[in-house]
Amino acid sequence: MAAATVSLSTCSVQQPRAIAQRLHMLFHLTAVLAILYYRFTNLIYGDVPTLPWGFITLSELIFSFIWFLTQAFRWRPVVRTVSLHNLPDDDELPRVDVFICTADPSKEPTVEVMNTVLSAMGLDYPSDKVAVYLSDDGGAPSTLYAIEEACCFAKGWLPFCRKYGIKNRCPEMFFSTYGHDELLFRSQEFEVDEENMKGWPEFRILYVQLAYERFKENVEQRTNGASAVNDREPHIVIIHDNRKSGRNEENQVQMPLLVYVSREKRPSLPHRFKAGALNTLLRVSGVLSNAPYMLVLDCDMYCNEPTSVKQAMCFHLDPKLSSSLAFVQYPQIFYNVSQKDIYDGQARSAYKTKYQGMDGIGGTICSGTGYYLKKKALYTCPNQQDEHLLHPEERFGGSRKFIDSLKSRYLLHTRGWKSVYLYPNRPCFLGCTTIDMKDAMVQLMKWSSGLLQVGLSRFNPLVYGASRMSILQTMCYAYFMYTPLLAIAFLLYGTIPQFCLLKGVAFGDTIVTWWNEQRIFFIKCISALLFGCADVMMKSLGVAKANFRLTNKVVDKEKMEKYENGKFDFEGAKMFMIPMTFMVLFNVVCFLGGVKRVIHNGNLEEMFGQVFMSWITLIYSYPILKGLVPSGSKGFPSIQEFKVLLPYDCSILDSGDSYDCSTLDS
Length: 666
Known about the structure:
The structure is a single chain. This protein is an alpha/beta fold. Among the domains are: 96-291, no CATH class; 511-665, no CATH class. It is built from 24 helices and 13 strands. It has helices at 15-45, 50-70, 110-121, 141-164, 171-174, 180-183, 188-197, 200-223, 273-288, 308-316, 348-359, 392-396, 405-414, 437-455, 461-465, 471-482, 486-503, 511-526, 528-540, 557-564, 574-601, 604-620, 622-628, 639-645; strands at residues 9-13, 78-82, 96-102, 130-136, 235-240, 257-262, 293-298, 302-303, 325-329, 333-334, 371-374, 418-421, 429-431. Strands 5-6-4-3-7-11-9-12 form an 8-stranded mixed sheet, with helices on both faces. The chain is elongated. Mean pLDDT is 82; it is low at 392-404 and 642-666.
């Protein structure tokens, strides 16, 4: 009974982060509504060019719509952990099938594919409960040769990794500069062998490395110039059959079942790309291994953490989750991301914000690789009896409908299935990100096309999904599917104002009007609004009494002239200007000192944000800077007055006198 209550996983809500994000939503929503109000009122009642203004309003509606959808990700972010030591014994663990898909040896190097296969074969899991399937949609004979060579190399590679506790079981990475940290790693058994055998472990590393170099050279020679065969018969080969050898046989290297699959392809028949390949692997694995769970990997996404399968089982076997859990998703992390990352290969906003946010509201989206899926979820709904699996073709249609990119994985959530997202300290899977504009654009175009296609179909989340999922989860899926619409908004923003500039059409108010609005808003916030906050606080504490202050309505000729000439009149506003004066002097000192330090250290790239903010503050404060220069101007506190008035800056709050602040609005 005690064992049944042992926790295999934990889920913690990031409460401070959630509260901060909800407050940010509120403030941002106010700004968005203000912008839309401004646009629509001017479009309907204002004297603006209707067509250009309408296009800009449309673009801002799209921006606002996408922004609104993204707020669902920020509502309830969670973090999950696992307890591997609470898992049952190896004999009680379920079987797992690993599906790896490759399509074209000319674009996906065969050596890289074989490294992914070898890393999957090295998963820290009972070998007789793992089956690795390679789908070769290219049908190249060289790929079959390569996987046979990889199987031979694995007979020396896998025992080496298990004996010395090697975590990075992708040989290419282990022997490269990326694996230098692990080459320095010395397990206790390694040190004992090194002491007893006088350097034999070091020699063994060199021996294994030479074996890998020989394997790599053979594969590269055979696959040089290989291309896909798009008209072929199906071909299935069991490379290594672990069903014929028991786990306890002596002198027998324990390896998973390894199968090569090349499905039939005809130019005149649709093959449904990766979805079709996965469906073929489902049918083949159902005959050979029939595991209840499967891991899906892209051919360039190798296993970096051998315990990933056990970490996933901590969720799939957790009594609190297992009945409704469809899949466990890991982040896509890339080993070749540059420091500048100009193509955003890290996708931090997705894997560190959006996925964690979706996990807290019903389950994250499936990224297409690096996930452990319960096969039953493809055929049934949660808590449905297993007899429905006996005739899936009759109940659920053709197998091509089981896995169809994002659509089917999205439909899992509409049927009531849940998913979890695990972001461990050590990446469980590492891949290779795009390093040129063409590949980055092609990849994004492929994703956005598929997403938008589902979003515009009868399965769109706003109609079909809203009645089957929570509103927050619906918003998350809608964000992914409708994000491509941002292209329309950016195109409008990038062409309409510029076209109006070319044609000489005034697009709203002048730049001078806009500048004056920004400047006075800044001054008001630091002066009048600050004193307003202080006034409320002092009244609530009983320090000041409530009073009614009138503004001066008398029109003075001299003041009017200054106003019409665009000159600030600070007369009678000395107290209000004390905070501004202090801030301006502080900015002058910081700006001059900071620029000197930046020039000396040569770190403008790092400090540009601070320099720019200080500079723009000084630009906004130019009227105050001008007032600090002795010129006989009235109303502005000099440096000497500033020192004297500072102790009394709050006296205005409980004074009944009326101060002339109307000039601040000029």
